């Protein structure tokens, strides 16, 4: 029963991790999720217990893979690419600003065309009114 309980706790942590996935780098999220999945497999391997060797091998292999993935997340990613992780949000914000700027530039261009058309129409109307006023005089 404890194996089910621990696997359930891992599953809940995986669900929570999924809900906050946008806070993580894509590779970091994948490695964390896979790590939790392998821990669930290691925990549930006890329910398929038919042979001690198979059980211990499956559990040990799953745990080793899980810990390797955690090692990759914490040490390799955190020590080799720390600035990439720290400035991920800054880069994301910069891309959002760039996208917004491009959208605004497009709106300005469209509005400029509309204003030129309206300006030409007003000039034509002014010319017509001046001609009409001249004709009336």
Task: Explain the overall architecture.
The protein has 2 domains: 86 residues, no CATH class; 50 residues. The longest helix has 49 residues. The protein starts with a helix and ends with a helix. The mean pLDDT is 85. The chain has 5 helices and no strands. It is mainly alpha-helical and 137 residues long.
What is the element string, with H for helices and E for strands?
Answer: HHHHH
Shape: rod-shaped
| Mean pLDDT over the full residue set | 85
Low-confidence stretches: none
Count the strands?
Answer: 0
The value of Rg in angstroms is 32 Å
Q: By helix and strand content, what is the structural category?
A: mainly alpha
β content, as a range?
under 5%
Count of all domains = 2
Oligomer: single chain
Topology:
Blueprint lengths: L1 H18 L6 H19 L7 H29 L1 H5 L1 H49 L1
Helix pairs in contact: 1-2, 2-3
Question: How would you describe this structure in keywords?
Answer:
5 helices; 137 residues; rod-shaped; 2 domains
What's a quick, concise take on this entry?
By secondary structure, the chain is mainly alpha-helical. The chain has helices at 2-19, 26-44, 52-80, 82-86, 88-136.
